[in-house]
Design brief:
CATH topology of the largest domain: D-Maltodextrin-Binding Protein, domain 2
Order of helices and strands: HHEEEEHEHEEEEHEHEHEEHH
Structural class: alpha/beta
Largest sheet: 10 strands, mixed
CATH class of the largest domain: Alpha Beta
Helix content: 25-40%
CATH superfamily of the largest domain: Periplasmic binding protein-like II
Protein backbone atom coordinates (compact mmCIF):
# COMPACT_ATOMS: atom_id res chain seq x y z
CA UNK A 1 0.00 0.00 0.00
CA UNK A 2 1.24 3.48 -0.82
CA UNK A 3 0.96 6.44 1.51
CA UNK A 4 2.15 10.06 1.52
CA UNK A 5 5.63 10.83 2.83
CA UNK A 6 7.53 13.88 4.04
CA UNK A 7 10.15 16.27 2.43
CA UNK A 8 13.91 15.68 1.99
CA UNK A 9 17.47 15.52 0.39
CA UNK A 10 19.66 13.62 -2.10
CA UNK A 11 23.32 12.69 -2.34
CA UNK A 12 25.48 12.37 -5.42
CA UNK A 13 28.94 11.98 -6.93
CA UNK A 14 31.14 10.28 -9.78
CA UNK A 15 34.38 8.27 -10.11
CA UNK A 16 35.37 5.02 -11.29
CA UNK A 17 32.89 2.85 -9.53
CA UNK A 18 31.74 -0.64 -10.48
CA UNK A 19 31.01 -1.07 -14.16
CA UNK A 20 27.45 -0.96 -15.33
CA UNK A 21 27.27 -4.67 -16.06
CA UNK A 22 28.86 -5.62 -12.76
CA UNK A 23 26.57 -3.42 -10.69
CA UNK A 24 23.54 -4.60 -12.64
CA UNK A 25 24.38 -8.26 -12.15
CA UNK A 26 25.09 -7.77 -8.47
CA UNK A 27 21.89 -5.84 -7.96
CA UNK A 28 19.80 -8.45 -9.74
CA UNK A 29 21.37 -11.26 -7.75
CA UNK A 30 20.72 -9.37 -4.51
CA UNK A 31 17.08 -8.60 -5.24
CA UNK A 32 14.65 -9.65 -2.51
CA UNK A 33 13.55 -13.25 -2.89
CA UNK A 34 10.53 -13.22 -0.55
CA UNK A 35 7.49 -15.19 -1.74
CA UNK A 36 4.61 -13.45 -3.52
CA UNK A 37 4.02 -11.60 -6.78
CA UNK A 38 6.76 -9.34 -8.05
CA UNK A 39 6.37 -5.59 -7.51
CA UNK A 40 6.50 -5.13 -11.28
CA UNK A 41 3.10 -6.79 -11.67
CA UNK A 42 1.63 -4.57 -8.96
CA UNK A 43 3.03 -1.44 -10.61
CA UNK A 44 1.60 -2.41 -13.98
CA UNK A 45 -1.78 -3.35 -12.53
CA UNK A 46 -1.91 -0.03 -10.69
CA UNK A 47 -0.74 1.87 -13.77
CA UNK A 48 1.59 3.99 -11.64
CA UNK A 49 5.20 3.89 -10.48
CA UNK A 50 5.50 5.67 -7.13
CA UNK A 51 8.92 7.31 -6.84
CA UNK A 52 10.52 8.96 -3.82
CA UNK A 53 12.44 12.09 -4.69
CA UNK A 54 13.84 15.20 -3.05
CA UNK A 55 11.71 18.33 -3.63
CA UNK A 56 14.60 20.72 -2.90
CA UNK A 57 17.76 19.42 -4.58
CA UNK A 58 18.22 21.44 -7.76
CA UNK A 59 19.23 20.67 -10.45
CA UNK A 60 18.54 17.01 -9.71
CA UNK A 61 15.00 17.54 -8.43
CA UNK A 62 12.92 20.43 -7.18
CA UNK A 63 9.27 21.28 -6.75
CA UNK A 64 7.95 24.36 -8.52
CA UNK A 65 5.37 26.75 -7.00
CA UNK A 66 2.59 25.03 -8.96
CA UNK A 67 3.44 21.72 -7.24
CA UNK A 68 5.03 20.03 -10.26
CA UNK A 69 8.60 18.72 -10.28
CA UNK A 70 11.61 19.36 -12.50
CA UNK A 71 15.21 18.20 -12.64
CA UNK A 72 17.49 15.43 -13.84
CA UNK A 73 16.12 12.81 -11.43
CA UNK A 74 12.59 13.85 -12.36
CA UNK A 75 13.24 13.38 -16.08
CA UNK A 76 14.90 10.00 -15.47
CA UNK A 77 12.06 8.75 -13.26
CA UNK A 78 9.40 9.99 -15.69
CA UNK A 79 11.11 8.25 -18.60
CA UNK A 80 11.55 5.01 -16.64
CA UNK A 81 7.83 4.94 -15.83
CA UNK A 82 6.98 5.62 -19.47
CA UNK A 83 9.17 2.71 -20.61
CA UNK A 84 7.40 0.46 -18.12
CA UNK A 85 4.10 1.58 -19.65
CA UNK A 86 2.84 3.40 -16.54
CA UNK A 87 2.55 6.92 -15.14
CA UNK A 88 4.94 8.35 -12.58
CA UNK A 89 3.76 9.60 -9.18
CA UNK A 90 6.33 11.50 -7.10
CA UNK A 91 6.47 11.16 -3.33
CA UNK A 92 8.46 13.95 -1.60
CA UNK A 93 10.60 11.96 0.82
CA UNK A 94 13.53 12.81 3.09
CA UNK A 95 16.87 11.29 2.14
CA UNK A 96 17.35 9.54 5.47
CA UNK A 97 14.17 7.42 5.20
CA UNK A 98 15.15 6.36 1.68
CA UNK A 99 18.62 5.08 2.58
CA UNK A 100 17.35 3.57 5.86
CA UNK A 101 15.22 1.02 3.96
CA UNK A 102 12.07 -0.60 5.40
CA UNK A 103 9.83 1.79 3.50
CA UNK A 104 6.63 0.02 4.46
CA UNK A 105 5.36 0.13 0.88
CA UNK A 106 5.01 3.93 0.92
CA UNK A 107 6.75 4.15 -2.48
CA UNK A 108 8.09 1.67 -5.02
CA UNK A 109 11.54 2.98 -5.93
CA UNK A 110 13.84 5.86 -5.08
CA UNK A 111 15.25 8.11 -7.79
CA UNK A 112 17.03 10.44 -5.40
CA UNK A 113 20.66 10.47 -6.54
CA UNK A 114 21.59 7.70 -4.10
CA UNK A 115 25.25 6.73 -4.13
CA UNK A 116 25.99 3.01 -4.45
CA UNK A 117 27.99 1.81 -1.43
CA UNK A 118 28.56 -1.62 0.08
CA UNK A 119 27.01 -0.44 3.34
CA UNK A 120 23.78 0.67 1.66
CA UNK A 121 23.54 -2.60 -0.25
CA UNK A 122 22.76 -4.28 3.06
CA UNK A 123 19.36 -2.55 3.05
CA UNK A 124 18.78 -1.55 -0.56
CA UNK A 125 18.98 -3.08 -4.04
CA UNK A 126 20.49 -0.87 -6.74
CA UNK A 127 20.19 -0.65 -10.50
CA UNK A 128 23.28 -0.01 -12.55
CA UNK A 129 24.44 3.62 -12.17
CA UNK A 130 22.42 6.09 -14.19
CA UNK A 131 24.92 8.91 -13.69
CA UNK A 132 28.06 9.92 -11.83
CA UNK A 133 28.82 13.22 -10.10
CA UNK A 134 31.92 14.52 -8.29
CA UNK A 135 31.76 15.83 -4.73
CA UNK A 136 32.88 19.45 -4.40
CA UNK A 137 33.93 21.58 -1.43
CA UNK A 138 32.95 25.24 -1.38
CA UNK A 139 33.82 28.11 0.94
CA UNK A 140 30.90 29.93 2.52
CA UNK A 141 32.92 32.60 4.32
CA UNK A 142 35.84 34.84 3.43
CA UNK A 143 38.76 34.58 3.22
CA UNK A 144 38.37 31.70 0.78
CA UNK A 145 41.02 28.98 1.32
CA UNK A 146 43.50 28.44 -1.49
CA UNK A 147 43.07 24.66 -1.24
CA UNK A 148 40.97 22.14 0.63
CA UNK A 149 43.73 21.89 3.26
CA UNK A 150 42.58 25.34 4.32
CA UNK A 151 39.43 23.75 5.74
CA UNK A 152 41.45 21.95 8.45
CA UNK A 153 39.68 22.41 11.77
CA UNK A 154 36.80 24.22 10.06
CA UNK A 155 33.07 23.48 10.14
CA UNK A 156 31.64 22.00 6.92
CA UNK A 157 27.93 21.77 6.18
CA UNK A 158 26.53 18.59 4.59
CA UNK A 159 23.19 16.84 4.18
CA UNK A 160 22.35 14.27 6.86
CA UNK A 161 22.86 10.57 6.01
CA UNK A 162 24.85 11.42 2.87
CA UNK A 163 28.14 10.02 1.65
CA UNK A 164 29.49 13.55 2.12
CA UNK A 165 28.94 13.18 5.86
CA UNK A 166 30.58 9.74 5.76
CA UNK A 167 33.62 11.17 3.96
CA UNK A 168 34.08 13.98 6.47
CA UNK A 169 33.94 11.37 9.22
CA UNK A 170 36.52 9.18 7.46
CA UNK A 171 34.01 6.35 7.01
CA UNK A 172 33.32 6.39 3.27
CA UNK A 173 34.25 3.31 1.24
CA UNK A 174 33.23 3.13 -2.42
CA UNK A 175 33.33 -0.27 -4.13
CA UNK A 176 36.12 -1.41 -1.87
CA UNK A 177 38.10 1.82 -2.40
CA UNK A 178 38.63 4.40 0.33
CA UNK A 179 38.73 8.00 -1.01
CA UNK A 180 41.50 10.41 0.05
CA UNK A 181 41.15 11.66 3.64
CA UNK A 182 39.27 14.87 4.44
CA UNK A 183 41.04 17.95 5.84
CA UNK A 184 42.41 17.33 9.34
CA UNK A 185 40.13 18.12 12.25
CA UNK A 186 37.19 19.09 10.06
CA UNK A 187 33.88 19.36 11.93
CA UNK A 188 30.75 18.17 10.05
CA UNK A 189 27.57 20.21 10.42
CA UNK A 190 24.68 18.00 9.27
CA UNK A 191 21.51 19.67 7.99
CA UNK A 192 18.31 17.95 6.86
CA UNK A 193 19.18 18.50 3.20
CA UNK A 194 22.15 19.67 1.13
CA UNK A 195 20.12 22.65 0.01
CA UNK A 196 19.59 23.70 3.63
CA UNK A 197 23.31 24.54 3.70
CA UNK A 198 22.94 26.93 0.77
CA UNK A 199 19.74 28.40 2.21
CA UNK A 200 21.53 29.17 5.51
CA UNK A 201 24.33 30.95 3.64
CA UNK A 202 21.90 33.03 1.60
CA UNK A 203 19.99 33.99 4.76
CA UNK A 204 23.19 35.08 6.52
CA UNK A 205 22.75 32.35 9.13
CA UNK A 206 25.62 30.03 8.27
CA UNK A 207 27.32 28.62 11.38
CA UNK A 208 29.90 26.88 9.19
CA UNK A 209 32.87 27.77 6.99
CA UNK A 210 32.28 25.50 4.01
CA UNK A 211 29.77 23.30 2.22
CA UNK A 212 30.23 19.88 0.65
CA UNK A 213 27.76 18.64 -1.96
CA UNK A 214 27.70 17.38 -5.53
CA UNK A 215 29.48 19.57 -8.06
CA UNK A 216 26.39 20.54 -10.13
CA UNK A 217 24.51 21.72 -7.01
CA UNK A 218 27.53 23.69 -5.81
CA UNK A 219 28.02 25.21 -9.27
CA UNK A 220 24.39 26.29 -9.48
CA UNK A 221 24.49 27.92 -6.03
CA UNK A 222 27.82 29.62 -6.79
CA UNK A 223 26.41 31.08 -10.01
CA UNK A 224 23.37 32.41 -8.15
CA UNK A 225 25.61 34.01 -5.51
CA UNK A 226 27.85 35.76 -8.04
CA UNK A 227 27.57 39.53 -7.83
CA UNK A 228 25.93 39.41 -4.37
CA UNK A 229 27.36 39.62 -0.85
CA UNK A 230 26.81 35.86 -0.44
CA UNK A 231 29.97 33.71 -0.44
CA UNK A 232 29.73 30.34 -2.17
CA UNK A 233 33.01 29.65 -3.96
CA UNK A 234 34.38 26.31 -5.11
CA UNK A 235 37.73 25.33 -3.62
CA UNK A 236 40.09 22.90 -5.32
CA UNK A 237 39.24 19.94 -7.50
CA UNK A 238 36.43 17.52 -6.61
CA UNK A 239 37.40 15.54 -3.51
CA UNK A 240 35.93 12.20 -4.60
CA UNK A 241 33.35 10.85 -6.99
CA UNK A 242 30.80 8.05 -7.01
CA UNK A 243 28.12 6.17 -8.97
CA UNK A 244 24.41 6.76 -8.35
CA UNK A 245 21.60 4.27 -8.86
CA UNK A 246 17.87 3.81 -8.60
CA UNK A 247 17.05 2.02 -5.32
CA UNK A 248 14.53 -0.56 -4.14
CA UNK A 249 13.79 -1.71 -0.59
CA UNK A 250 15.18 -5.13 0.35
CA UNK A 251 12.55 -5.31 3.10
CA UNK A 252 9.74 -4.57 0.63
CA UNK A 253 7.81 -6.80 -1.76
CA UNK A 254 9.70 -9.16 -4.12
CA UNK A 255 11.11 -6.98 -6.92
CA UNK A 256 13.63 -8.96 -8.98
CA UNK A 257 11.52 -8.49 -12.11
CA UNK A 258 11.06 -4.75 -11.49
CA UNK A 259 14.79 -4.33 -10.88
CA UNK A 260 15.59 -6.17 -14.11
CA UNK A 261 13.06 -4.06 -16.02
CA UNK A 262 14.54 -0.83 -14.64
CA UNK A 263 18.06 -1.96 -15.53
CA UNK A 264 16.93 -2.81 -19.06
CA UNK A 265 15.25 0.57 -19.43
CA UNK A 266 18.33 2.42 -18.16
CA UNK A 267 20.57 0.46 -20.52
CA UNK A 268 18.33 1.42 -23.45
CA UNK A 269 18.28 5.06 -22.29
CA UNK A 270 22.08 5.05 -22.23
CA UNK A 271 22.33 3.46 -25.67
CA UNK A 272 19.83 5.76 -27.36
CA UNK A 273 21.30 8.90 -25.77
CA UNK A 274 18.34 9.74 -23.52
CA UNK A 275 20.40 9.80 -20.31
CA UNK A 276 23.10 11.94 -21.94
CA UNK A 277 20.47 14.35 -23.23
CA UNK A 278 18.92 14.71 -19.77
CA UNK A 279 22.38 15.24 -18.24
CA UNK A 280 23.33 17.93 -20.75
CA UNK A 281 19.99 19.63 -20.18
CA UNK A 282 20.38 19.91 -16.39
CA UNK A 283 24.15 19.94 -15.87
CA UNK A 284 25.26 22.85 -18.08
CA UNK A 285 25.93 20.74 -21.15
CA UNK A 286 27.94 18.06 -19.31
CA UNK A 287 27.43 14.34 -19.92
CA UNK A 288 27.73 12.83 -16.44
CA UNK A 289 26.37 9.44 -17.44
CA UNK A 290 29.80 7.77 -17.70
CA UNK A 291 32.49 7.26 -15.01
Amino acid sequence: MLAAAAAGCGDGGSTAGPGTAAVSAAATAAATAAPGPDLLSEVKARGELHVSTDPNYAPQSFRKPDGTYEGYDIDVATELAARLGVKVVFEPVGFEPVVAGSWGGKWDVGVSSVTITDERKKLLDFTAPYYYTPAQLAATKKPVPASIDGFAGKRICVGAATTYLDWLGGKLVLAGVTPPPPPKGVVPVARDTDQSCADAVKAGKADFDGWLSNAPTIARAAAEAKGTDVTIERVGAPVFAEPLGVVLDKAGPPHAELLAALDAALAAMRTDGTLARFSQKWFAGLDLTHP
